[in-house]
Design a protein that fits this description.
The complex is a heterodimer of chains A (239) and B (331). With 239 residues, chain A is mainly α. Chain A is built from eleven helices and no strands. Chain A is elongated and about 65 Å long. Chain B folds into two domains: 229 residues, 3-Layer(aba) Sandwich (Rossmann fold); 67 residues, Alpha-Beta Plaits, CATH 3.30.70. In chain B, helix 4 crosses helix 5, helix 5 crosses helix 6 and helix 9 crosses helix 12. Chain B starts with a helix and ends in a 5-residue tail after the last helix. The chains are: A mainly alpha (239), B alpha/beta (331).
Amino acid sequence: MSATRVRAIFGKELREYRRNRAIVLTMGIVPAVFLIQPLVQIFHLPAASAGTLAHKHPLLYMLGIPALVPALIGAATVVGERQQGTLEPVLTTPIRREELILGKALAVLVPSLVVAYAVFGLAVASIAAFAATPVASAVLRGSDLLAQVVFTPMLATWSIWISMGISSRAGDFRVAQQLATLASLPTIIVVALISFDVIAVTLGLAIGLGAALLILDRLGWRVVSALFDRERLITGTRA
Amino acid sequence: MASPEAQRGSAPAVRGRGTALCVERLNKRFGERVAFQDVSFEVGYGEVFGFLGPNGAGKTTTVRTLGTLIAPTSGSATVAGVPLSAENGVEIRRRIAIMPEAPGLYLRLSVAENLECFAGLYEVADPHGRIERALHAVNLADRAHDLCGALSKGLRQRVALARALISEPEVLFLDEPTSGLDPVAARDVHELIDGLRQRGVTIFLTTHRLDEAERICDRVAILNKTLRMIGRPSELREQLFAKTLAVRTRVALPDPASVFGRLRAVESWQQDGAGGYLLDVTDPSVAAPAVTRALVQAGTDVLSIGESRHSLEDVYLSLISEDVELNPRSS
């Protein structure tokens, strides 16, 4: 494993993302959707209704950001390069597929985390500043804040592996993006069900989900690397 | 189909310190479809080796196979001293560079940023120095900060060439490097290839430009699924065509058979327009004086007489037409 080669891919991808208006817009618009709904709901709650929030976790709804944003961006990573004709020159270098996959995944993960944490920070600051004080106290619970901080990178990583796996096998960028969006829906549904208290959150459930995500994230790199078939990507024919 | 020995050619493969490429009975199939089969050749260090063939002949697939991008179906090869295998892929790719036909540049990045990425992928020491040298080599030093998306096709091709030079490879595979370049830029590329040859870099050049191959390649191979011929361009001409004298007279001979037919140095002859004759001869230096004497004795005014050279294009077209006649459905 060469850190230099991983860094080369990581740096190149970040530069490309910064200059790609579609990606910048995706990173801006999708989080806004997950930010506005809970904020509007919370700002409209009168102080007297703080008690009804005891079993709800509106902030956790924002875990949809790390589930969806990386999926949309990660879907382009392999098939996008293939369609642009830039993949073959990269594959002629000494880079290993694991290094290429890791460099690309990190380049999706870092901005996704920055966006997810920034939006979450903005939500927390807005609630603290503008929501009724009892409502703010009920919503800004330490356990929910901790869950957001801990689960954001784990969900983002899982979402990246799913989307990159799809991207490595898809023949068209748009198809990859649609499939990746579909693949992230179960995660978003679980997040929504938890935030609306349909699924009761317990410490055991949180630890179980965390452990499962850690294992899946660990396996994801290997699985996506295995799905990355140089010959198929270059010739369109299975090796 | 030529035997492996014949395919290797009579011209010595080795210019420098050994064999840069050694290919033995290499085959590649995609399911039932044959990309290329039974390909064997050797290329020496510092040699410029031309790889010619029609579209779909298997040239690019051969390059991709030798570059470890795709796996051969059977056969073996050594690339830059390393046996071709999946395990040796990284080591082989460290020693070679491939410039694909399409430049494949990151259009949102500048020229320098594209090269920086590849300098990192090759883990080169002093990347900025290498980038500067590579850009100087392709006359693009003043365009380092231009976005690749804003460059013309020809300039993009030059950036791709600079990218291939970044790692200072032992073996450089160039797939149509002058495609889309203007004549001056193409000449610059030829000079660059010549400079690399003198530094001992092996160049494996696939091209459709037969004049280019004839001018800059030490040896050429003609591939059409199988290797049809390999050797120096002059050897190929000699192997395929009899030596020919082109004769022009002021007026057409009334009875050319009586003039050329009795000369032992002339094997056969044919009319080539009014007052023009093409004679197949065993040795032009013996035949030319004999033909001249015979024409003068016949009272003919000779305008010119000289050896007619077949071009590499003639060789290529002759071989490919043979294939078309033998396998009309595959062409």
